[in-house]
Amino acid sequence: MSLYIVFVIVLFETDSVYYSFFYCHKKSQEVPIIKELQINEEIRDREVRLIAADGEQVGVVSSREAQNKAVESDLDLVKISPNAKPPVCKIMDYGKYKYEQAKKEKEAKKKQKVINVKEVRLTPVIEENDLRVKANRAIDFLKDEDKVKVSVRFRGREMGHTQAGREVLDQFIELTSEYGVVDRKPRLEGRNMIMFLSPKNL
């Protein structure tokens, strides 16, 4: 089981709502990276450990003998483990192998899930009507199955009254509770108090 995550972040502002997109790619299983392998006459090792087309372990043979066996089977000799001593080669249809690997990679990409995280910024002295507008915007994000980062920015002396920011976030949680749940509780980070909301159906 392998997990691959790639983040691409874009931040811009529209109507005092900040959007940040995090693209998270998660693969349920590891897919071999398609790369060119040495085949047939390209294999110049003195000896190789040969695997027949049906999976039978033939054993250590000369490269020439391995290539001859591949020709007799009307298939390719492919070096599948070049770092082994001696290198491991298998008789196979290399064109078919590459096609199947490409197909597996394509199927894995279909299963990749893109998670958008969008950010709404508040202040500890935000008016109730403005708070409702921001909450409704967050609800739209949650309906689209996006996560929402909610932050309260403290300026100057406001740092001495961080509880006011916590109260704003508590109100925000209540306003969006029908559609979202707290993914990460409010936490003070520098001059920002931050929490994350997730859609209820995720």
Structure description:
This protein has 202 residues and is of the alpha+beta class. The chain folds into two domains: 11-27 and 113-199, Translation Initiation Factor IF3 (2-Layer Sandwich), CATH 3.30.110.10; 40-109, Ubiquitin-like (UB roll) (Roll), CATH 3.10.20.80. Helices cover 29% and strands 30% of the residues. It contains four helices and ten strands. It has helices spanning 63-72, 94-111, 128-143, 162-176; strands at residues 11-14, 17-20, 47-51, 57-62, 76-81, 88-92, 117-122, 147-153, 180-189, 192-199. The strands form three sheets. Strands 4-3-6-5 form a four-stranded mixed sheet. Strand 7, helix 3 and strand 8 (147-153) form a beta-alpha-beta unit. The longest helix is centred in the middle third of the chain and has 18 residues, at 94-111. It is rod-shaped, with a radius of gyration of 28 Å. The model is unreliable at 1-34 (pLDDT under 50).
